[in-house]
Amino acid sequence: MPQDGFYAKVRRGLPALVAQWLTLGQGDADRLALLLAETARVTRIGLPERTPDGDTLADWSRPEGEEPPLWAARTATFLLVQMPARPLPASDDEACAWAYCWLRNRDFEDLAAAEQALPEHLREPLAAALRAAWTDLKGLRLV
To answer: CA-to-CA distance for 54 and 106, rounded, in angstroms?
Structure first.
């Protein structure tokens, strides 16, 4: 079923990924939105057309809200994997979103390199999702 495919899981998991950033980031929603956009620009993960406000960030974090742009999810992944709190994805859909963004944030020679680059605490929770993301990436999905 298409709704159970890897990319469908990614799409459902993107709001949860942004919600993790909104929940664990330090500061109010407006500050976290600014930090997300500025980090995207500085790291060249993405080039947001505009800096979102806190209400927009909150909307992106709800499953029934507007789907977050890929730059926001990729940047949230970038920031979350560096947090000392060692956050983990809370569902299979969210794990797929983390893995998808992880592979798009850096160039990896192979799956083993992508796995080794993950922080230790994420290797097991993302193992299956990362394999699926690698297969998706190598399938040359045009997204």
So the answer is: 27
